[in-house]
């Protein structure tokens, strides 16, 4: 069942991505208009409307802010027994082909782990991430993380790796099994701020109350800098936010998250 859901989700998102879907609508609408059918204006307007909205309005920031502001980072964590780093920042296939660790726009997850390991020298560090793509390679995200952190001096018995998970739900379930947290322990959860609501919901459903430690913000409050990033960045920002909302709804329907929009 889990394997089927994983493949269905990947295939669904391949076509349902807002930027891809809007482009397909635009192409279909234009082709229909060229063929002399006036109803082609409808898909063309909706398709181009998405790109116009991203270009001329703060839509990407508007839909991203509620996600990123849902779980603010605590001013002081106090006693920390462990730190969980969610996968998603590592490009394992590119790492294999180039021979050096490759990271994407969520790289702050990996660098924050090193900073927290130095800040809390007694805390356990757990990375969770396996093969999150349909086309898999020989290395997992955990393999790349292990090599990257070792080159940065983060290694040893307190550093652990979970390498079987493929999505956020499996991150929560499998890392809980690996870490076996004891009652009263405090574990920080490190992931992108916009991904934190879904992540916290999954960990709560898995029976693990964690302390959110968001990183990788893409918006600033108060409207500052919303139009500064290039159009391509804002397209990706808007698409990522939509993906999170779709993921929250899907996980809630599947019973994988504690609430439709988890809150502190």
From TrEMBL:
The keyword Transmembrane applies. CDD domains: YdcF-like (cd06259). Keywords: Membrane, Transmembrane, Transmembrane helix. InterPro entries: Cell_Envelope_Assoc (IPR051599), DUF218 (IPR003848), Rossmann-like_a/b/a_fold (IPR014729). Residues 81-247 form the DUF218 domain. The chain crosses the membrane at residues 12-35, 42-63. This is YdcF family protein.
């Amino acid at each position: 069942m889990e394997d089927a859901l994983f493949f269905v989700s990947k295939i669904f998102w391949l076509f349902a991505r807002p930027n891809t879907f809007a482009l397909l609508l635009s192409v279909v609408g234009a082709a229909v208009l060229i063929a002399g059918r006036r109803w082609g204006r409808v898909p063309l307007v909706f398709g181009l409307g998405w790109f116009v909205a991203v270009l001329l309005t703060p839509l990407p920031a508007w839909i991203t802010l509620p996600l990123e502001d849902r779980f603010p980072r605590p001013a002081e964590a106090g006693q920390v027994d462990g730190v969980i780093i969610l996968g998603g920042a590592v490009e394992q296939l590119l790492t294999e082909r180039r021979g050096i660790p490759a990271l994407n726009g969520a790289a702050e997850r990996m660098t924050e782990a090193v900073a927290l390991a130095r800040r809390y020298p007694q805390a356990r560090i757990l990375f969770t991430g396996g093969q999150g793509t349909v086309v898999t390679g020989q290395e997992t995200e955990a393999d790349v993380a292990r090599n990257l952190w070792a080159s940065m001096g983060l290694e040893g018995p307190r550093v652990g790796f979970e390498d079987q998970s493929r999505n956020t739900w499996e991150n929560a379930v499998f890392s809980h099994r690996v870490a076996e947290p004891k009652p009263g322990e405090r574990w920080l959860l490190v992931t992108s701020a916009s991904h934190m609501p879904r992540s916290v919901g999954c960990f709560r459903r898995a029976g693990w109350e964690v302390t959110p430690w968001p990183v990788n913000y893409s918006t600033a409050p108060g409207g500052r800098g919303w139009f500064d990033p290039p159009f391509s960045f804002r397209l990706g920002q808007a698409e990522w936010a939509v993906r999170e909302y779709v993921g929250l709804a899907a996980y809630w329907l599947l019973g994988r998250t504690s609430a439709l929009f988890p809150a502190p």
